[in-house]
Specification:
The chain is mainly beta. It has a single domain, classed as Immunoglobulin-like, CATH 2.60.40. Helix content is 13%, strand content 33%. It is built from one helix and twelve strands. The model has no long low-confidence stretch (mean pLDDT 89).
Length: 159
């Protein structure tokens, strides 16, 4: 009987060891992805520009006389296209003023121009912490007495 118990114990031990060796660990790889879209943001405040007459007194512009460019800071996460539209006259401007106008945005050596629909194509480096200088002019003609105010919309589109 002892011989039989030893034989059964041996078989149980052998089968346990045999099955343990055939059980193997399995690996699986789980991947995660996210596509991050480009993003552009302008600084919270812009620096307003000023207008003055050209030498013929028939055009108001930020590059005429003592006029100054306006500016705003641009931060993009990658390359971007910058564009501008023609200036928008404030509704309180005096009636009868000339309406022909154009605006430009300059970022380093790149220029966006509303008159020619030129877009400034910025690289990622150029679009990071960039100063966008904005200029405009309106004319040619006679300007009635009063205060004139215009706004220029600058758009930055991530690529």
């Amino acid at each position: 009987m002892l011989h039989r118990a030893l034989l059964v114990s041996g078989l149980i031990l052998a089968s346990t060891v045999g099955f343990a060796n055939s059980a193997k660990a399995a690996d699986a790889t789980v991947e995660f992805t996210k596509t991050v879209a480009g993003n552009c943001a302008f600084g919270a405040t812009s620096t307003p520009g000023t207008l003055d007459f050209n030498t013929g007194n028939n055009e108001l512009g930020s590059k005429s006389g003592t006029g100054t460019s306006g500016s705003v800071t641009l931060n993009c996460t990658g390359a971007a296209d910058v564009s501008v539209v023609a200036p928008t006259a404030d509704s309180a401007n005096p009636a009868g003023a000339p309406t022909t106008s154009e605006s430009k945005a300059t970022i380093g050596s790149k220029i966006a121009d509303s008159a020619t629909a030129t877009v400034a194509n910025l690289t990622a480096t150029e679009a990071t912490s960039a100063t966008v200088n904005v200029d405009m002019k309106v004319g040619t003609g006679s300007f009635p007495t009063g205060t004139y105010k215009y706004s220029v919309t600058v758009t930055a589109t991530p690529k």
